[in-house]
Specification:
Organism: Clostridium rhizosphaerae
Order of helices and strands: EEEHEHHEHEEEEEHEHHEHEE
CATH superfamily: Ribonuclease Z/Hydroxyacylglutathione hydrolase-like
CATH topology: Metallo-beta-lactamase, Chain A
CATH architecture: 4-Layer Sandwich
Shape: globular
Protein name: MBL fold metallo-hydrolase
Pfam family, one: Lactamase_B_2
CATH class: Alpha Beta
Structural class: alpha/beta
Bound molecules: zinc ion
Number of helices: 8
Strand content: 25-35%
Oligomer: single chain
Length: 244
């Protein structure tokens, strides 16, 4: 599998940035995981919308889903002009209901709801979903193919479920929105860098890739918090590709 980071900011992209969005590819499979602001534009550097097999949304906070609300227009047009034969498959939580309903838009998407523990096979990639602790219904995911494991925390505060999700993963993409500096002033519903490292250690993850950065927080603060906490760690970079 190959992961391309399309956007790694949250909850706001800042100048020239994009919020959460990750393209997961394998052979002829193209799956978009999360679809925050700026993601759909960047996705088109790599493929056409027609080439997407599915979109998986961890939750319906706007920094993970807002571009779906413009993609629905384009899907409506593509279906009308018959440049696509069928709606896009979308996997997502069923709440908050008002956001979910807005995606039920003129047949643009085929909506499939996800829940704790369910397993899905999306073109040979085996997904398992784990509920996280967040203000809205949210799922992290573990994705397996040919003995390789990719794990994504989605948004969460500290929970044992994420340790299970990341167990023995080859690549663990984990949100670490809160630096110690941010934590000293506020308590966002997110993991800190140190917590992400703690989870990666307990899960025996091979590599930890951090994401969901606050745009106005210096990257140096994220790096400083990570020092000595985990042996194989990287701050994710937009447009960078990671082999799994
Ligand atoms: Zn969120």
């Amino acid at each position: 599998m190959k992961l391309t980071v399309l956007g790694n900011y949250g909850p706001f992209p800042g100048k020239d940035g994009a919020c959460s969005g990750f393209l997961l590819q394998d052979d002829n499979t193209n799956i978009l995981i999360d679809c925050g602001s700026g993601v759909i534009s960047r996705l088109q550097r790599y493929l056409r919308i027609e080439d997407l097999d599915a979109i998986v949304l961890s939750h319906l906070h706007s920094d993970h889903s807002s571009d779906m609300y413009v993609l629905r227009y384009e899907m409506q047009i593509k279906l009308m002009l018959r440049s696509m034969a069928k709606p896009l498959e979308v996997y997502l939580p069923e709440t908050p209901e008002n956001y979910y309903k807005e995606l039920d838009f003129h047949g643009a998407f085929n909506l499939n709801t996800i829940s704790e523990g369910i397993q899905l096979d999306i073109k040979g990639l085996k997904f398992t979903f784990y509920k996280t602790v967040h203000p809205v219904e949210c799922y992290g995911m573990r994705i397996e193919k040919d003995g390789k494991i990719f794990a994504y925390s989605a948004d969460t505060t500290y929970t044992e479920n994420i340790i299970k999700l990341a167990e023995n993963s080859d690549l663990f993409l984990c949100e670490a929105n809160a630096t110690e500096n941010i934590r000293s002033k506020s308590k966002p519903p997110h993991l800190s860098v140190k917590e992400a490292c703690d989870i990666a250690r307990k899960a025996n993850a091979k590599k930890l890739l951090l994401t969901h950065f606050y745009y106005d927080e210096p990257k140096e603060n994220y790096k400083k918090d990570a020092e000595g906490e985990f042996n194989n760690i990287e701050l994710s970079e937009e447009f960078k590709q990671y082999e799994i």
